Amino acid sequence: MKNIIQKSLKSSFSYKTYREYVSKLIEEGKSTGHTQTEDLLHYSELNETRLKRLDKNIKVVPEIEKQLGNLSKKLTWLVISEGWCGDAAQILPIINKMAEVSNFIDLQIVLRDDNDVLMNKFLTNGGKAIPKLIILDADSNEILADWGPRPEPARKLIADYKAANGVVDEEAKIELQKWYLHDKGISTQNEIMALMPKEVLV
């Protein structure tokens, strides 16, 4: 597993370079990933707007900021993502803001379709759902925890909608985006902190 992690890290992006790469592809009329469609490009363009807004507005909860500022061990936060993914657009800026408040967290992002072996180790109910955050010991690349693709209330919202309607349609996606807007990243922050190994929290 460590070899898979190490190989993926070699092709990883910082948050800044990931954002620049996705933006450049959109300018060329492309999305990330091995499949190119009008829909995926459209979602990528929508996500670009969301990312700009969230990069500006998202805030780390003060108590969490304090905890992250006092970590006792260096960590790598490795996120599996794609530019067209709506959940990734909502969650990556939160993860980035959390990483920015700590000198002990190195955030790296890899593309799902380019890292199939890694993705297959972190399936959700058998599916390649993203984003997926993998928390690693920065020195050994040992996996300490993983999280994703959605915070629990968002997962439940979609699961309940699908149970009632049989599909996850455009209306469900609108409801999900409304939930993210209202939540302001707090559920994601709390869930990630709950998974952080006790020994790294001072």
Index terms:
Glutaredoxin, 202 residues, four-stranded mixed beta sheet, alpha+beta, single chain
Overview of this protein structure:
The chain has 202 residues and is α+β, with helices and mostly antiparallel strands. The chain has a single domain (2-200), classed as Glutaredoxin (3-Layer(aba) Sandwich), CATH 3.40.30.10. Helix content is 52%, strand content 12%. It has a 4-stranded mixed sheet with strand order 2-1-3-4, sandwiched between helices. Helix 7 (152-165) runs antiparallel to helix 8 (170-183).
Helix proportion? 40-55%
With strands numbered from the N-terminus, the spatial order across the biggest sheet is: 2-1-3-4
User: How many distinct folded domains?
Assistant: 1
The largest β sheet comes out as: 4 strands, mixed
CATH superfamily: Glutaredoxin
CATH class: Alpha Beta
Task: State the gist of this model.
This protein is an alpha+beta fold.
Write the layout of secondary structure elements.
Elements: H1 2-10, H2 15-27, H3 38-57, H4 62-68, E1 75-81, H5 86-100, E2 105-111, H6 116-119, E3 132-137, E4 143-147, H7 152-165, H8 170-183, H9 186-195
Parallel strand pairs: 1-2
Antiparallel strand pairs: 1-3, 3-4
